[in-house]
Amino acid sequence: MAAFTASPARADQCDDIAKQLASQIDGLKVNFKAANIVYLTHPATRELSLGCRGKNYSVELYAKGDRRPKPEFFQLVSSAAAIIFTVPKDDTTTGATRCLKRMGLLRGDKVSMRFRRLNMECTRTRTEASIAITRGKDE
Fold first, then answer.
1. Angle between helices 13-24 and 71-85 (to 10 degrees)
2. What are 62-86's pLDDT values in tens digits?
3. Vertex 94 angle, CA 130 and 33, to 5°
4. What is the pTM for the complete model shown?
5. By C-alpha distance, which of 92, 96, 93, 124 is closest to 108?
């Protein structure tokens, strides 16, 4: 009989992280959820999303901004990554800054790097730059 009783509904971990981000970062709003991605909005970015349970990662933060990101963009990305991946904000600031500033003539428009157990992939086009921060499932 106990096996057939309804268990309480549980909120998705991705929703919990998105609500935590919205409550701790000024100007950040949860937009909507589609599949395993929660779309967020913030004045410092063009696009911001939080992906959960991918094939090779458990959580992914994706942010897109201007080709030459402003300091507000770096602050937002580092604050969100620090909350999501529970690492110090100084480490995420350093990693995001290094990744985005390495793009150029010598290294090209796509840079992949690893910093403090976080995988960072930065890309840029003629008008915008983006960063995707993930942590592998086995870490």
1. 140
2. 999 998 888 899 999 999 999 998 8
3. 40
4. 0.82
5. 124
